[in-house]
Amino acid sequence: MSQAWFAGLTRRSRIGVLAAGAAVILAAGVVKTVDERTVNFVRPGLKFTVTRADIATDGTLRVTFKVADPQNVPLDREGITSPGVVSTSFVAAYLPKDATQYVAYTVRTQTSPINGRSAIQASADTGGTYTRIAEGEYTYTFGTKLPASADRTATHSILIYGARNLTEFDFGQSRADTVYTWVPAGGAVTNTRDVIRSATCNKCHTQLAFHGGNRRSMEGCILCHTPQTVDPDTGNTVDMPVMIHKIHMGAELPSVKAGEKYIIIGNAQSVNDYSHVEFPANPRRCGACHETELPAAQKPAQADAHLKKPSRAACGACHDNVNFATGQGHVNLPQATDNLCSNCHIPQGELDFDASIMGAHTVATRAPSLPGTTFSIVSIDDGVAGRKPRVTFTVKDKFGNTITPTEMTSLSLILAGPTSDYATYVSETARGATDVGGGRFAYTFNASIPADAKGSFSIGMEGYRNWALLQGTALEQTVRDAGINVVRSFSVDGKPVVQRRQSVALAKCNNCHGFLELHGSNRNQIEQCVICHNPNTTDAARRPAAAAPNESVHMATMIHRIHAGEQGRDYIIYGFGGSVNNFSEIGYPSPLTNCNACHINNSQRLPLPETLLPVVDPRGIIKNPGPETAACLACHATKAAAAHAASNTNAIGESCSTCHGVNGEFSVDRVHTVQ
């Protein structure tokens, strides 16, 4: 049975062949059971490749392209000789030699039904025609003709985006886009716009997929999101630098803090309100998106454009209380053009918080002028069941100078165990530690390791100094110079030391968060976080009685619930100082099904280790769920899901892995497939 034979069958016959092989179940766009023959014949996926483009003397623009599946097998865009109709759309733009942003040829006039205003918008071409060259290869002739004044020596780009409709085979839609760049007059492309690449966006977003999901790359987005494109309903530009800065600044925009909203009204009059967006990294961390430290092979050609070519549009997007025309908010200095911006705003100056770009965006807790705080646990003595452990440690600044415990504003050691799943912890201040010479200090816990303790325990170290930055100046401010947490495990019964299970990686957290620092910068390593956020911990110590019952802050439960946010149930934690932390409306930037965005070592797979403890969850539908149930219900926060979990748990334990195990029909990997 060949693919050509299969593709030549009628729709009904093809479905019959597939049905004869195996049932295919589709839920929420995810294929859960797939017959091998189905995959082999349908080959879900889509790939566009442009082979050439040209502009005729009369301005006619043509592009020749190939359509294929992931195995490079040609596809019929009409879905007659291969499975699935393929839709395609085209955008054409050029990069003027004296400009840094594209200008689209393919445009439309959009009129607002709200205020009657009209605006030009970059858009997909209309009225074009297709010519079939060979199997899977076509030429598209644009309906838009280029003007006679078109500069054929300038950089030109064509975006192709589209989808392959495989719903009749229960495979949903396969989507793709590609950008082809060339100089119509011939020669190498030397003028480019290459500031931020898709890979950087996808650190948080997993896979860019906008306007229905077909537009999937930053390289394509910048062809439409140009200064020429405006939302006529609100008057807001959707120019990429402005729009992206404003979206990611969101709730921190001065205009939003003053009571305004940042809204873009899009296709079909959809209202997109970004006024509530909270960027997961400190918005001063320009490097979260502008990755100047990437290896040369991965770094965009203009990765440092924000440092070398500051502009009123880009800077004013975040600082939207600045009026460059009058000078208000700009030290009363009007700025008519961008020509002089870099005179004052050099890439880097001499001081934190100066007018340089890096200085003005200094994150106080990571300021270069901080002396730094570095911890080291040298040894743990008497770390056995029934004894009080004695910890020898050092504290130094980043230059290697010793910091005494009494110089620290806060210095704590936290004892917890067992590492199979921390059940309890005790935190004690170590500022009164004894100087034992050589820059080392020793502290003996007041608490004892339980007499019946077995296995391995851990001791974590945390603390900070209050430090005055720019002391004696008008910009003086006191910040916490916190140390990087260190955690050391030890055996309490003479058996080999067993480290606590590692299920997530800090580097993955920092893909979105930049530098993870919580509880006043005191906690900044996952190994430290899990010591306190154990299965038995709730917010009871901070939650007022009137707001009972308490909320679980178990690490897996808490992190799943925070990231599920608006997709889950209300999740409010009472924290230090009586702070009320409402995570109920968090908009996670990546598909929640992408477990690997955080997890490592396949730690999301079932079954989980048998040593993990049940979770105390007073506000949960199930008050004391097993570890597998707790992790899953944190996202799947419905009574139906809870009933399902409860019916598959008994006195022996959880049976989740029967269906959701690695080889199960509904394994975690299969039901959390990211398309």
Please characterize this protein's 3D structure:
- The longest helix has 11 residues, at 11-21.
- The chain contains 18 helices and 27 strands.
- Strand 1 (25-27) and strand 2 (30-33) form a beta hairpin.
- It has 675 residues and is of the alpha+beta class.
- It has 5 domains: 1-42, no CATH class; 45-193, Immunoglobulin-like (Sandwich); 236-362, no CATH class; 374-500, Immunoglobulin-like (Sandwich), CATH 2.60.40; 533-671, no CATH class.
- It is 18% helix and 24% strand.
- Helix 14 runs parallel beside helix 15.
- It is globular and about 90 Å long.
Report the sheet with the most strands, covering strand number, pairing sense and barrel closure.
5 strands, antiparallel
Strand runs, count = 27
What is the CA-based Rg, rounded?
A: 29 Å
What structural class should be given to the helix and strand makeup? alpha+beta
The unreliable regions are 1-33
Overall shape: it is: globular
How confident overall, as mean pLDDT?
Answer: 93
> What CATH architecture of the largest domain do you see?
Sandwich
Main CATH class of the largest domain: Mainly Beta
CATH fold call of the largest domain: Immunoglobulin-like
Q: How many independent structural domains? A: 5
* Distinct helical segment count: 18
In whole angstroms, the N-to-C terminal distance is: 28 Å
Which percent range fits the helix content?
10-25%
Instruction: Tell me the β content.
Output: 15-25%
